[in-house]
């Protein structure tokens, strides 16, 4: 598993990286930051393998920020400007991505990081998860999960027989799910592909529940169901 963070002063750019990272079961996005200084603590306190780093930011640019890190992780630069490419590669960057970033280009860059870190692309999964909920640990069968809903302060796992609340983030929970069976369809929703009843223009019906489809997730959803 590759633990990564993303730093970019544009919220939309961070949402794109979060979406792309959510598609890859071997990539765990541990945090996103619009200010590079705010990311210093997680870089100092946690084991971060990979950094997606914007270059042109108001307080400190990405190249300067990278130089102040004592033990920098591998870095993939993300920028709208191609003129910094040489500087990026001189900083020993894994790759240099020009916005808007296509998913295929993002995947290629992450695979380069995999090769440096020697991390396998696939992970084995059990047929169940143990989820901490309040003061209990609940066994949840993957085959029972209908969809997962991100709330304000927690995530709700809706299953055939119950709903389980946990303080895990959607990104962290998605990391533990088999990518072939689950897909993110909205910033706040992950669904089980085999539980889809029907798909409308802007929503998915699973039983009696109507799940919204986010615009940035629609293409991936349609690709997955057309396999």
Q: CATH topology of the largest domain, what is it called?
A: Rossmann fold
Q: H/E series, N to C? A: EHEHEHEHEHEEEEEHEEEEEH
Structural class: alpha/beta
> Based on CA inertia axes, which overall geometry fits?
globular
> pLDDT average, as an integer?
87
Structural description of this entry:
The protein is of the alpha/beta class. It folds into two domains: 2-117, Rossmann fold (3-Layer(aba) Sandwich), CATH 3.40.50; 128-225, LytTr DNA-binding domain (OB fold (Dihydrolipoamide Acetyltransferase, E2P)). Helix content is 28%, strand content 33%. The chain is built from seven helices and 15 strands. The chain has helices at residues 11-22, 40-45, 62-68, 85-90, 103-117, 170-175, 215-225; strands at 2-7, 27-33, 50-54, 74-79, 95-98, 128-133, 136-141, 145-150, 155-159, 163-166, 182-186, 189-192, 198-199, 203-206, 209-212. The strands form four sheets. It has a five-stranded parallel β-sheet. A five-stranded antiparallel β-sheet has the order 10-9-8-12-11. Strand 6 (128-133) and strand 7 (136-141) form a beta hairpin. The radius of gyration is 18 Å and the shape is globular. The mean pLDDT is 87.
